[in-house]
Amino acid sequence: MFFRWFFGGNDSISASEAKQLLAKGAVLVDVRTPGEYATGHVRGSRNIPLDQLPRHLDSLKKSNKPVIFVCASGSRSGRATAMAKQTGIEAYNAGSWVTLR
């Protein structure tokens, strides 16, 4: 519970909730660096490092699909979720990518 509150509040979702959204067509975005992503990631995820996310928000919004963000711990994905929500994207923080493997 503390983890959800600290890293993303109501925008945080569990691994099972994320998997349900993915089964319905949501987009999975890993906001870690390319080097981190290369060491392991969820199959089918898209790597958009957090510092590059602002220039990709328009294309994510145009997809008209929910976006689920992951990273190493939930901190960066929480920030990505907040950024996306500010542009009107239905966005969720799933925390660590490891939970969705």
Q: How does this model look, in words?
A:
- With 101 residues, the chain is α/β, with parallel strands linked by helices.
- It has one domain (2-100): 3-Layer(aba) Sandwich (Oxidized Rhodanese, domain 1).
- 38% of the residues lie in helices and 17% in strands.
- The protein has five helices and four strands; from the N terminus they run ααβαβαβαβ.
- The chain has helices at 2-7, 15-23, 34-38, 57-62, 75-86; strands spanning 27-30, 46-47, 67-71, 91-96.
- The protein has a four-stranded parallel sheet with strand order 2-1-3-4, sandwiched between helices.
- Strand 3, helix 5 and strand 4 (91-96) form a beta-alpha-beta unit.
- It is globular.
- The two termini are 21 Å apart.
- Residues 1-8 have low confidence and may be disordered.
Beta-strand proportion? 15-25%
How would you sum up the global shape?
Answer: globular
Q: Which residues form runs of ≥5 with pLDDT under 50?
A: 1-8
CATH C-level name: Alpha Beta
- What summary fits the major beta sheet? 4 strands, parallel
* SSE order: HHEHEHEHE
**Total of domains:** 1
Average pLDDT reading: 92
User: Number of helical segments?
Assistant: 5
Write down how many β-strands occur, each being a DSSP E stretch of 2 or more residues.
4
Please name the fourth-level CATH homologous superfamily. Answer: Rhodanese-like domain
As a whole number of angstroms, the C-alpha radius of gyration is 12 Å
Separation, N- and C-terminal Cα atoms: 21 Å
Strand order of the largest sheet: 2-1-3-4
